[in-house]
From TrEMBL:
GO terms for molecular function: NAD binding; oxidoreductase activity, acting on the CH-OH group of donors, NAD or NADP as acceptor. Belongs to the D-isomer specific 2-hydroxyacid dehydrogenase family. The keyword Oxidoreductase applies. Keywords: NAD, Oxidoreductase. This is D-2-hydroxyacid dehydrogenase. Residues 106-279 form the D-isomer specific 2-hydroxyacid dehydrogenase NAD-binding domain. Coiled coil: none annotated.
Length: 316
């Protein structure tokens, strides 16, 4: 069997590199920075990269390329027309983000509910002043886009005594969800939820899905949490909803243009919690991503069905 050339646009530990080599002993594995990829792409059979890195200049120079694996769940920048029209397989690392992202969402929910930002502000001012914290027990969480991340959020929410409702394209039996709705029933979920959590992929159908009317569908006492993609939300409408009191507050790990502009009104809003796209971050992230890649590499070598194959026309 001819040797495989695998190009990885990221640093790997010795353990991770050895694991790949042990899976395909005759593979030539090259690690390099994205800016140096043009030096190696011509002979590359498998490219391991990130979904936010452009391949626009690489693809025309990659006649041998057969498979691209994204170390991220998002593949936004990889889905260029030439790739969509090609026979190149595209896979992602969907499924490894659930644990850190679910913990992050629960931290956001508890931070907002227990009014921790107000207490931190009082602490900085050396002010001993009680706040009015709430409980999340028996509250309803609406998970918009129940995938692997949503299930981890649902599991933890259920353990905290919350009622869990969600939207999902395919109706399935979900042991941690009280009721499942179709995407067309989004407004029903919004109107019933105390916490709305967005875990949707970014596609043509979900871009700017959340406009002012959607925020008006929510309870005035509800919080909006986005850990998916910023462009799913029409940001000016979110600002309006927060200013006008259509919703109580928001927790945002993502925004439409990152980093968030210093003149954005979101920075100054006391009912907004902002984190810099860190919900999926974990010291175990790359280890999990490479483990998934190796599992797929084994399937690829044996010509069996691979995991997380992206429908390039749909974008997920």
């Amino acid at each position: 069997m001819p040797s495989l050339n695998i190009l990885v646009l990221n640093r790997l530990s010795e353990k991770e590199l050895t694991s790949i080599q042990d899976t395909v002993p005759n593979a030539n594995i090259t690690l390099c920075k994205p800016e140096n990829a043009p030096d190696y792409i011509e002979n590359t059979d498998i490219l391991v990269t990130w979904g936010h890195l452009s391949i626009l200049k690489l693809l025309p120079k990659a006649p041998r390329l057969k498979w691209i694996h994204a170390l991220s769940a998002g593949v936004d920048e990889l889905l260029i027309p030439d790739l969509i029209e090609s026979d190149i397989i595209l896979t992602n690392s969907r499924g490894i983000h659930g644990i850190p992202m679910a913990e992050h969402v629960m931290a956001m929910i508890l931070t907002l509910s227990r009014q921790i930002p107000e207490s931190l502000k009082n602490q900085q001012n050396k002010l001993w002043q009680r706040t009015r914290p709430d409980e999340i027990y028996d509250k309803t969480i609406g998970i918009i886009g129940l995938g692997s991340i949503g299930r981890e959020i649902a599991k933890r929410s259920k353990a905290m005594g919350m009622k869990v409702i969600a939207t999902k394209r395919t109706q399935t039996t979900e042991i941690f969800v009280n009721k499942l709705y179709s995407p067309e029933q989004l407004d029903i979920v919004l109107s019933a939820s105390d916490f709305v959590v967005v875990t949707l992929p970014l596609t043509d159908k979900t871009r700017n899905l959340f406009v002012l009317d959607k925020f008006k569908s929510m309870k005035k006492t509800a919080y909006f949490i986005n850990v998916a993609r910023g462009s799913i939300v029409h940001q000016p409408d979110l600002v309006t909803a927060l200013k006008e009191g259509y919703i109580k507050g928001a927790a945002l790990d993502v925004v439409d243009i990152e980093p968030l502009s210093s003149d954005s009104p979101l920075w100054e809003m006391e009912n907004v919690l902002i984190t810099p796209h860190v919900a999926a971050m974990s010291p175990y992230y790359l280890e999990r991503a490479i483990k998934l890649f190796i599992e797929n590499l084994t399937k690829y070598m044996h010509s069996t069905d691979m995991l997380n194959v992206i429908d390039k026309a749909k974008g997920y």
